[in-house]
Amino acid sequence: MIIPFASIIFGLTSALVWGAGDFFGGLGSRRASVLGVLLVAESSGLVLLIACAWLWREPLPALPEIASGVAAGIAGTLGLGALYVGLARSRASIVAPVSAVVGALLPAIYSALTVGLPEPLQQIGFILGIGAIILVSYSNQGVGEMRALGMAILAGVGFGAFFILIHQSGQDTTFFPLVFARGISIPLLLIAIFVLKPRMPSGTVLPIVIASGLFDVGGNVFFLLASQVGRLDVATILASLYPASTVILSRIILHERTTRLQQSGILVALAAIVLIAA
């Protein structure tokens, strides 16, 4: 089976943009509460999605698609919150790869059960892709970060459920499923903030958090496009390479060291992309 070239490009673009969003979200969560960061990020992303839906004159989806979008929003918010908590407590070496691998495996299993397994070369590419996710985010600080493992697994389950549900809701439209996904997350966050009264992002942190929300929306859109024109499992594996972008930005901005294993992971990721596109 030949994977459409557009699906490869959209999936890889999603990984690059999502990784940037997670970097800025984690950075903002070190300086403000996770709930505050999520509220600002989700709100800024919702405004952009509504504007895009209006500009592209998308029709409203049917009720089943709306319900899937709402469920995807709940799962994605829980996943993103767990990821930000993990990133705020420790470096990315445990949180990013574990969440990405768990999030990638669930849609792969779902696709295998619903549409069958991909070609053997692509299956090898999936295995290499999962290995690349682990390698590219690994650092020597892993032992002290095991306490973040639970948050990483929870984040991965939330992301995997989001991938499946948003794919189901976005068969005919692109922006409105994400509008409903974001629309449900904001009231939930407002309730949590009213009860817990966390510290909201200050003026200096606000641009970082807004950037996180905009990058996250971009990653969502490109992932949905990739899953629409190709297989869900292919789109998910490619998009789940986002830790590479997170680690590269950490290297450039925070001056975190890039290990040889991480460099090897980038090479393995390139080999995986070639096999998946074979």
Summarize the structure.
By secondary structure, the protein is an all-alpha fold. Helix content is 78%, strand content 0%.
Describe, in plain words, how this protein is organized in 3D.
By secondary structure, the protein is mostly helical. It has one domain. Helix content is 78%, strand content 0%. It is built from eleven helices and no strands. It has helices at residues 5-29, 34-55, 63-89, 92-114, 120-136, 149-169, 175-196, 206-229, 232-239, 243-253, 260-276. It is globular. The model has no long low-confidence stretch (mean pLDDT 84).
| Total of domains | 1
Q: Which band does the percent of strand residues land in?
A: under 5%
General shape: globular
SSE string: HHHHHHHHHHH
Number of helices, where a helix is a run of at least 4 consecutive DSSP H or I residues = 11
- Main pleated sheet: none
Residues in helix, %: over 70%
Report mean pLDDT, rounded to a whole number: 84
Strand count: 0
Radius of gyration: 18 Å
The separation of the N and C termini measures 8 Å
Q: Which regions contain 5 or more consecutive residues with pLDDT less than 50?
A: none
